[in-house]
Amino acid sequence: MTDSPRILWTQFLEIIRKNVNEQQYQTWFTPVKFKSFDTEAHELVISTPSQWFYEYLEEHFRKIIHLTMYRVFGKDASLIYEVEVVKNSSVKIESDDIQSVPQPEPSKHQVNKSPTLTQAVGPAQDLDSQLNPKQTFSNFIEGISNKLPRSIGQAIAEKPNQQTFNPLFIYGPSGVGKTHLVNAIGTRLKELHPEKRVLYLSAHLFQVQFTDSIRHNTFNDFMHFYQSIDVLIIDDIQEMIGLEKTQYAFFHIFNHLRQNGRQIILTSDRPPVSMQGMEDRLLTRFKSGLLAELEKPEVQLRKDILRSKIRHDGLEIPEDVIDFISQNVSNSVRELEGVIHSLLAYSVVFNKDVDLAFAQSIIQHAPKTEVREVSLDKIVEEVSVIYNVKQEDIYGKSRKAEIVLARQLSIYLAQICTKLSASKIGLMIGNKNHATVLHSIKTIKNRLVTDAGLKEQVDELTNRLRGTR
Known about the structure:
This protein is of the alpha/beta class and 469 residues long. The chain contains 21 helices and 9 strands. A 5-stranded parallel β-sheet has the order 6-7-8-5-9, with helices on both faces. The chain has a 4-stranded mixed β-sheet with strand order 1-2-3-4. Strand 1 and strand 2 form a beta hairpin. Helix 8 packs antiparallel against helix 9, helix 13 packs parallel to helix 15 and helix 20 packs across helix 21. It is globular.
């Protein structure tokens, strides 16, 4: 007679107990609960008290859990975790087989404190808006390339209760002033409406706080805090790409804020149509407000920015130097500021006036940031050399740990260095589906947060692939 699933679960725990020390067993296996075993589908479902608990089991005990499961429940058995997110609510996560690359722990780096219930119900004056008071409309120089988003931003700051431009989605390449503009909006809004709860943060920090709330079972406080905000400004929203659970939380926050007449302002390095890996229901909401593009500054705007910066820093620079710089530095406002900083250093160190010859020298020796087209083959070639694996293995379906990591890194680099869609990348690398590609991207993103060596490696690879020196 075949043993019942619960008897098999007891046998499972007995084997585990013999192979770990007692403290490990009591800490990590006693809280795990048996939910069910489908004898037809061969699916074992167990529950853990939190997302962090599940991640720790996968990180430290995956091999012994899977081997014991195969021994007790059969070689065809698969494991599904039921993770309690909030009270009486859970999500199911399918565990990879034991040949998969171990998942990293979530980042332990805390940029600031996670939201608390006290913050959620306190007055606006007690909330740190995280705004940069130096980035204002007075030093955000207007030009043709930024006139629309700047004007809309001022309108929102003056009348935040109007829903005409909600959400405001500002997009454009790095260095054109997106962060400056949204800080200017927030700062001006706080001046005119001090009773408003305004919050600025990066999408990365939002993700860190969300993960922290799951780990410490404070998800309700997290949601309560963000649903109390009057004006929510999130920078680099594209950082949520591939983060399904973070997107899920943000979707419900977004809906609550908008349905209650609260303003949402987002920035991105790309328009919604190019955000592969973002949920369709979020993209639909991004496009339901106003999409405003911040373009690279035109020549006249570059001149005006240079003159403003020169006055601010107390420099005296001839017009021919300003003309030369504005004609030859065109990629971003950030590059213009870098040139001015170099000229200022020269003027102070050598106690000399800045002239055209020196400006020409500065431009000539400035780092080149032109991005060249990158092919998937080139990415795979570079990664294969670093990890000492064959290129055909990266393109193939081997589940060896070092090849899986090389494949995941190749997929991540393809996503940031090429214009290929997630589906196309998956088709070309191992014939993976869209979800697997997003999982690979998320895995590398998580590792970059905690693995400084990998981050340095990825930065070097990215620069080399793009031809940036």
